[in-house]
Design a protein that fits this description.
Blueprint (H helix, E strand, L loop, with lengths): L8 H4 L7 H14 L4 H15 L5 H13 L4 H44 L6 H26 L3 H16 L3 H29 L11 H15 L12 H12 L6 H15 L5 H13 L8 H38 L4 H26 L7 H19 L5 H15 L1
Helix pairs in contact: 2-3, 2-5, 2-16, 3-5, 3-6, 4-5, 4-14, 5-13, 6-14, 6-15, 6-16, 7-8, 7-14, 8-14, 9-13, 10-13, 12-13, 15-16
Length: about 425
């Protein structure tokens, strides 16, 4: 394997090429175990792709998280598309995104069938409770590993600390944009001269004129998807075409994570189209939360209720793949300007801010751990410590840690 830690920035954009089968298999494994929200999934990717396989480096992951945070769509799925694209181009992005969503999609469809027939969802609270401390350990360990590259002095510590405080005390979509944009400006002010010297020393310069075709065609396609939300189309209200146009249009207006768009989805699918009633919608969101994938996999529930298995497939494709296409398009642009002093200096400011965001994500997840009773406190702390030791001391893959934590939760909570 290539040790990316010793590569210079000119080599970062040329990761080791892997097969599509290898890529699909690894992301299928990640998608089966990454419980706990988008940062948990990103942390599992970081553990497998960066730390263990060394296919990308920590800076690459931070760049992908930064880009995904300011683009529309589910952040976790966008990061997956970015990693797949970096490793195997467009087909890699498609393979990785499909693989990571497949386990959650199948689980949601299965639970939907049970729900629509029996009117209830099997109780899995204790297993899910066991996942939470393990997920926190994974997130904290990922933040620590990334910080070794991105946080090297008091300036980076300050940026990370301020971003964490803002997200913890204020939060919300606008603060996320302010943190990313503000840290980018601060990075430019603080590091532009240093970056210019580093790039000159390494003989790295901006590339020539950008080829427009790879960018314009996807952007036109995305504009068409977005127009679906505003233009009346001659399709039936319960048709597959309507499901696709509805979800693909909404997906490109999703900024700030899946929870932000839930009120919009509710207004459209419950109040406007009447595809679900309020109780069914709440159940759909619950299913999205108990699966290892992004919460917006709930679209599969809605699609299945309207048009069966094909409705589930079409809705899932509509909500996830237009933002992934935009992410790949912007990744192409990001790579093209790797030699830009402005971009590289801005990224030096954004990367520690992302570290702060990751740490806060760990604390937010930790709040859901069972802590009411003394026994619950002991079990939660024990799972956290053992999971952290398994990652740091014994280098055990996180895809094995999370299922074991679920079994412990089932037995001891």
């Amino acid at each position: 394997m290539i040790d990316n830690a010793n590569l210079n920035p000119q080599e970062y954009s040329k990761p080791e090429k892997v097969s599509l089968v290898y890529l699909f298999g690894n992301f299928l494994k990640i998608g089966s175990t990454a419980f706990g929200g988008f940062m948990a999934l990103v942390s599992v990717i970081e553990n497998i792709i960066v730390e263990r396989r060394k296919l990308l480096n920590h800076e690459d992951m931070l760049d992908g998280i930064s880009l995904a945070s300011v683009l529309p769509g589910p952040v976790a799925a966008n990061v997956v598309a970015y990693v797949g694209y970096r490793l195997r181009g467009g087909l890699g992005a498609l393979a990785a995104t499909t693989a990571v969503l497949l386990p959650s999609f199948l689980l949601v469809v299965g639970l939907t069938i049970v729900y629509l027939q029996a009117g209830d969802i099997p109780a899995v609270n204790r297993i899910l409770a066991g996942f939470i401390p393990a997920v926190v350990a994974i997130i904290i360990s990922a933040a620590y590993r990334m910080s070794k590259k991105a946080v090297k002095g008091w300036r980076e510590v300050a940026i990370a600390g301020v971003s964490a405080i803002l997200l913890q005390t204020i939060g919300g979509i606008y603060i996320t944009f302010i943190v990313i944009g503000g840290s980018g400006i601060i990075g430019w002010l603080l590091y532009r001269r240093r970056v210019a010297k580093e790039l000159a020393k390494q003989d790295i310069a901006e590339k020539g004129p950008l080829a427009l075709k790879p960018i314009i065609i996807p952007l036109i396609i995305l504009a068409v998807f977005l127009s679906f939300s505003f233009l009346p189309l001659p399709v039936g209200q319960d048709s597959l075409a309507k499901l696709f146009t509805t979800f693909s249009g909404m997906s490109l207006m999703l900024f700030g994570g899946g929870y932000v768009i839930i009120p919009m989805i509710q207004e459209i699918v419950v109040n406007n189209f009447g595809w679900l009633n309020q109780q069914e919608f709440a159940s759909a969101i619950s299913m999205g939360q108990i699966t290892p994938g992004p919460i917006l996999i709930s679209a599969a529930f809605i699609g299945y209720k309207v048009q069966g298995i094909w409705g589930a497939i079409v809705s899932t494709v509509g909500i996830f793949f237009p933002p992934a296409l935009l992410m790949v398009t912007m990744s192409h642009l990001l790579e093209h300007i790797k030699g830009s002093v402005i971009i590289q200096a801005a990224l030096k400011g954004i990367r520690p801010a992302v570290i702060g965001m990751i740490v806060i994500a760990g604390f937010i997840v930790a709040k859901d751990a069972p802590m009411d009773l003394l026994q619950e406190q002991i079990v939660s702390l024990g799972i956290f410590v053992v999971s952290l030791a398994a990652i740091w001391k014994f280098n055990i893959e996180v895809v094995f840690i999370i299922p074991v934590a679920g079994v412990i939760g089932l037995l001891l909570y």
